[in-house]
Design goal:
Elements lengths: L2 H30 L4 H4 L3 E7 L6 E2 L5 E13 L9 H8 L3 H14 L5 E7 L1 H10 L6 E11 L5 H4 L2 E3 L2 H6 L8 E3 L2 H5 L1 H4 L4 E7 L5 E4 L15 E3 L3 H10 L5 E7 L4 E8 L12 H10 L8 H4 L9 H11 L30 H7 L2 H12 L5 H14 L21 H8 L23 H13 L2 E3 L4 E4 L2 E2 L7 E3 L7 H13 L4 H4 L7 E7 L7 E8 L6 E7 L9 H14 L7 H9 L7
Parallel strand pairs: 2-10
Antiparallel strand pairs: 1-8, 2-3, 3-4, 3-5, 6-7, 8-9, 10-14, 11-12, 11-19, 13-16, 14-15, 17-18, 18-19
Helix pairs in contact: 10-21, 13-15, 14-19
Amino acid sequence: MNNFSKRSYIIIGIFLLTGIIFMIGLFRLQVLDPTYKVFATNNVLREIIQYPARGLIYDRNGNLLVHNKPAYDLLVTPREVKDFDTLYLCNLLDISKDDLELRIKTAREYSWYKPSIIVKQIPPETYAILQERIYRFRGFHTQSRTLREYNYSVAAHVLGYVGEVNQADLDRDMYYNQGDYIGVSGIEKTYEEWLRGDKGIKKYLVDVHNRIQGSFLDGKEDVPAQVGNNMVTSLDIELQMYAEKLMENKIGSVVAIEPSTGEILALVSAPAYHPGMLVGRVRGSNYAMLLTDSLKPLFNRALLAEYPPGSTFKMLNALIALEEGSIDLNTRFSCSGTASVPIRCTHSHVSPLGVVDAIRESCNPFMWNTFRSIINSRSTSAEGFNLWKEYVDSFGFGKKLGTDLVNENKGNVPSVEYYNRYFGEGRWRALTIRSLAIGQGELGITPLQLANYAAIMANRGHYFIPHTVKNIEGQEISPEFRNRVETKISPEHFEPIIDGMQMVVENTNASVFMRIPELTICGKTGTVQNPHGKDHAAFMAFAPRENPQIAISVYVENSGFGSTFAAPIASLLVEKYLKRDIAESRKWVETRMLEIDLINRN
């Protein structure tokens, strides 16, 4: 046998072997494997995404704040669509024929083969009717979703809301697909990865009549959805509800913090809105209404509004001067003569005063002379100012505190560079920037920063970053929220300042609004100058004096003196939190704060 014949047999053998292998494969696929039989009988394999329920949200006392309710989406796969009763489907889903046709057209433009959502968030009662008749609509199928449900009509700015993903979300995270939902604001956004869970997939066999015939391969290829993690927030829902009630018909904010942990007990931005307004098919119209409201209910004043701190800032200037030795407890400044120029006292009191009485009386000349002593303590005003600014910065002013709620404003503390640009290098001094002595001028802080300032006073010189979540499914919070942040002021300097704060509450003309039986509160009022109208009222406080459990800030816009509205509201909230009820002797204060309407007043 020559070489040519041998090669011929080898080639023929290879072809025969290849043919046998193909025949065995076809026999296995067509006869032995039942998977393909279903397709031979006009069945279709459908994959349906299983959306997980988002994690539940509780308050610090175990009250359920946010849970889930069922909703459903209607999807269409354009290549499978056959003629159907358009009018019936439109009436059932409460949409117009033109709208339905446009949605189907959009789905075709996206893909003939992939399903697209055409009607979102169908309520359970409508879904029940639709599901019974879905066989009439070939190419259409449903998938289950969940929507957020709220047990209380408060805390919208803290809890946030859930909305549909945008292109930036899709580009950033491969987890999401078009039509998915994501946390847009508040806790829902910050803790999205914990709350969202993991999507699953179920594979079904569907016949030519669009009816599910059973699971594909008995569910062996299904991937179960993993529900989101539950979380416990730091909120006290009873305090939150009371705060929002007190702030009705007012513009402003309330922030309450537990000083020993930095946990936010209540956070209110007024006017507020019901969190359920941004859920479901009414979300779009409600959002547009809230967005165009002249009172800006969507604007989170507690985190984003920026005001001068006013007289509340005087305590920090006194602390800096005590720390630097620019003044001591025996220092006195007069309210008359050259000491009262250029900032005069707005109160009538005995003169001269020391630091404790100056805090009580909120004495402008004392604070001006104190501030001047700090700035003049170095060889140049710029050096003295930088020294002052280092202390102010250590209290968390002029920067974001790092809270777990998004879109926090950093406020403003001016710099040497700013004044050099504005006045010229070497051409400014303490007198030029004297407004800083009384918390005005270029200073700007947020209500959150003011509440944190109150917590620093309560802790005698340190704070924990304010945050809204205690734990997630039993896991501890991020370590950064457990770290103690120290200021540059020594603890011993706080006691005389706190003496003055206690006297503000107990021994001033406004004490009648603030004193609480058998409870020691330390606080400071502030009247914030407003170039656009009536002054804003501010108040910060903590209680009790020893072992403080709550630190609070209240801003009420366009309401005048801090003692008129901000201080009474704060005192009521402190009493509510610590005693769980308002004493009979103070019911008149509560009634007055509840009934006053500062928005619609003449």
